[in-house]
Amino acid sequence: MDFHLTREQDLVRRMMKDFTETEVKPIAAETDETCTYPRENIEKLFDLGVMGMIVPKEYGGAGADDLCSALAIEELSKQCASTGDIVATHNGLCCGPILQHGTEEQKQKYLRMLTEGHKVGAFCLTEPDAGSDASKGTCTAVLEGDHYVLNGSKIFITNGYVAEVFVVFAMTDPSKGTKGISAFIVESSFPGFSVGKHESKMGLHGSPTSEIVFTDCIVPKENLLGREGKGFNIAMQTLDGGRIGIAAQALGIAEGAMEEAMNFAKSRVQFGRPISKFQNSQFAFADMHVAIEAGRLLTYKAAIKKTAGEKFTLDAATAKLFTSEAAMNITTKAVQMCGGYGYTKDYPVERMMRDAKITEIYEGTSEIQRVVISGNILGK
Ligand code: CAA
User: Fold this and answer.
1) In this structure, are strands 165-171 and 121-124 parallel, antiparallel, or unpaired?
2) How far is the CA of 288 from the centre of ligand 1 (A)?
3) Are 236 and 220 members of one domain?
4) Which is nearest to 258 in space by CA: 297, 296, 205?
5) Where in the numbering of this chain does the Acyl-CoA oxidase/dehydrogenase middle domain appear (predicted)?
6) What is the whole-number distance in angstroms between the Cα of residue 255 and the centre of ligand 1?
7) 231, 266, 286: which is the final residue of a domain?
8) Which domain holds residue 174?
9) Strand 140-144 relative to strand 147-158: parallel, antiparallel, unpaired?
């Protein structure tokens, strides 16, 4: 196994580190406080080729590999998990399935929109009564001549009220269970598409989350993604890839929180010495380091296997489960390390702790990751 980054991967990491320091860090607290979508930075990320970076050059992208995308998300999330989330969703959950399952025409049209066209993408699977049990959605798609008519609503959609291209899952044959679900590419300009409730969340305040409503929404027949009835498989495969992005996001949050806590511990003097000189702090940082290193190896391994075209479902679920729980644990310890200061909004660790929580929930809860992992190692 090669533990070194390629030249391109190293370049991406360095570019994203600089971008995060100069553009993301300065506005991260304000983005959180004001619940503002970081539009200017997302535009700059389009200009840099990071939005849709996994898309091959012939469809307008940078042709980067999955590890490059994970590195970009990790670096951004060290300072602003919201920005990392917007990129992760766009790359993994919208560009990903179109790249993998789209026709040549769909790829030329939509991947170009999602890269050169600066249109943000989203993924609509979850419904009010179908979260972890993703196959129980009731959103329907009925073929009428040259178009499908979609009805129903989707909730907790990342990028929901800023996105213009959506990968949507709906029942084309409710009698067939998971085999009756199909995937569609839907534009926000299609008749019958609307944005519903904007969510007010514990964390990730810069990441726009909303309900998406389809009311007799007209979707051209050619916007069916993959074959009819293959939607659930497409959703599951997409989430396998998306989970690498969330693992990278959680990793970045954990790294950012550890760095903040270390800086604090080195300068905070109590009982006559910096608190970093107490073994209690030293052991806490040693444990954080071990968890981050392990999480990094799991995440990069999953990304490398995906790019190699190997089966990576188990690796992605393992990486997501481990890094998200590590992020929650490390951010909680970081707040504790900073004491009363850590609990205030003057220090970023309280935001990081709120942001970390969602990584244990979205794109499959920790419990669902355990279902996937145990299913893969024990057999169903
Ligand atoms: N890749 C491809 N196909 C897969 C697959 C995978 N990783 N996992 C399952 N499938 C296929 C199976 O092979 C099977 O297909 P066939 O019938 O053709 O054999 C079909 O899917 C059904 O499989 P299961 O019986 O295993 O499905 P299940 O109903 O038991 O569900 C589950 C399995 C793992 C619990 C799944 O429902 C799941 O992952 N749930 C979590 C959903 C989730 O992560 N939601 C996140 C929403 S998106 C989000 O959060 C982003 C946002 O914008 C906020």
Assistant:
1) parallel
2) 32
3) no
4) 296
5) 122-217
6) 30
7) 231
8) 121-231
9) antiparallel
The whole-angstrom separation of Cα 33 and Cα 196 is 23
Q: What is the mean pLDDT of each run of 10 residues along the chain (380 residues)?
A: 91 98 98 98 98 98 98 98 98 98 98 98 98 96 98 98 98 96 98 98 98 98 98 98 98 98 98 98 98 98 98 98 98 98 98 98 98 93
- The residue whose C-alpha atom lies closest to atom 5 belonging to ligand 1 is 236
Strands (E), 79-180: 121-124, 140-144, 147-158, 165-171
Asked if 333 contacts 261 with a C-beta cutoff of 8 angstroms, the reply is yes
Task: In whole angstroms, give the CA distance from residue 168 to residue 188.
Answer: 11
Pick from 164, 145, 163: which is nearest to 220 by CA?
Answer: 145
Task: Report yes or no on 108 lying in a domain.
Answer: yes
Q: Are 175 and 205 found together in one domain?
A: yes
Report the separation in Å between the CA atom of 351 and the middle of ligand 1, taken as the mean of its atom positions: 31
For residue 310, indicate whether it is catalytic.
no
Domain assignment present for residue 1? The answer is no
Among the candidates 231, 253, 278, a domain finishes at 231
Give the count of domains, the chain: 3
Q: Can you tell me whether residue 208 is helix, strand or coil?
A: coil
What is the pTM for the complete model shown? 0.97
74, 127, 360, 363: which one is catalytic?
Answer: 363
Question: The CATH number of the domain where 48 resides is what?
Answer: 1.10.540.10
